[in-house]
Design a protein that fits this description.
With 287 residues, the chain is α+β, with helices and mostly antiparallel strands. It has helices spanning 22-38, 61-83, 105-114, 116-119, 153-160, 186-193, 196-204, 207-211, 223-238, 248-262, 266-273, 277-285; strands spanning 4-10, 42-48, 53-59, 94-98, 145-147, 171-173. It has a four-stranded antiparallel sheet, sandwiched between helices. A two-stranded antiparallel sheet has the order 5-6. Strand 2 and strand 3 (53-59) form a beta hairpin. Helix 1 packs antiparallel against helix 2, helix 9 crosses helix 11 (266-273) and helix 10 (248-262) crosses helix 12 (277-285). It starts with a strand and ends with a helix.
Length: 287
Amino acid sequence: MGKKYWLLTTEHLKDRLWFKDEDDFKVGMNYVAVLSATRPARILSFVLMSNHVHFILESTQEDAKNFINEFKTIYSKYFRRKYLSKELLRENKIDIKEVSTFDEGLERAIAYVQMNSVAANICLHPSGYPWGTGDCYFNNSPATGTFVGDLTGRAVSRMIHSKISLPSNYLVSEKGYIHPSSYVSIDLVESVFKTPKRMAFFLNNSSKAKRNEDLPSIPSFRDQTIALGLSELCLSIYGKKFITELNPEQTSEILKQLRYRFSADPNQLARVTGISYENISKLLDRC
């Protein structure tokens, strides 16, 4: 079977986060770069969200499955080492759909991926979200940084959490990860959309954009910001480091404080705390 285009989506984790802080996102970005150099798949677009990821690849279906499974495997190992947790993503299901090249199917799929951060009310435009390809296309201000070839092998290995050799022309961004413009098929995507105006049209009319129409224009607090607030509240109010150390009454108070301070809904609180949605609802209703 020849190469085709595939939209890969992992199941949204309801009561856990893939990426708990900025360092986790950087590791995730660097693992994408590692796979771009070692797997036979062209990356057209991707985004790393707090509790799920999306990729659009040009490859065979088998190579697409291997790509996302390998990403889950290597990131899971990192997550377990850092947080001393059980398996994070083994049961995390994957949806793989072939993307049609007819009826502007590829344009709509790319716009769908790009607009995830906007639909989550994190930013007003994909270019404002660093964890993916949001600023890669039709960008007159290319990314700046240091080339991999200008760094020592040890420095690169520490950064990417891998001993593989990356191409020397891969660019390390000022944020400390390999910038996607180093390996994403930018020319292909721009040729698909043809002009910045046409790409903007698809972004503004994507299903993700329409879901966001009724949301306020000011971005919400990110999951990672609330996770940091959670730790600080537990420590300052009860002298405990983790919410799991609190009794039900104390947990209820912390959740109410998070809801009040960050306008967080039960779904977001479940992701950040690891408590099920059902229990979150009960604890918020607790007198």
